[in-house]
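We include the entry.

. . .
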Amino acid sequence: MTQTSAQRRMVAPSPEDIEKLTQLREIVRQEAATASPFMASLWETLHAHVSRAHLRAQRALARAERSAVLQAAKAARTQHSVAKGAQGQGEETQEESNG
């Protein structure tokens, strides 16, 4: 079964993926510098595609990291609210038994 482009976009690249793209950009750049004029134009086109993929991957990784931070903050706030609510209920119960 093949993935749709939307499903592929949901998976954030790993830092290793970013590093591999960085290496690929450098290899393609070097090939373009030493190739014949015809091949150089092909390598430059490939370099442009790899560069765009590299930028997209970096943005996706940054988005995933921001999302993880926001989710962790939200979970911490929720946990704090639940704990505070439980503490408030305990105080109300204690007041009722004292009253």
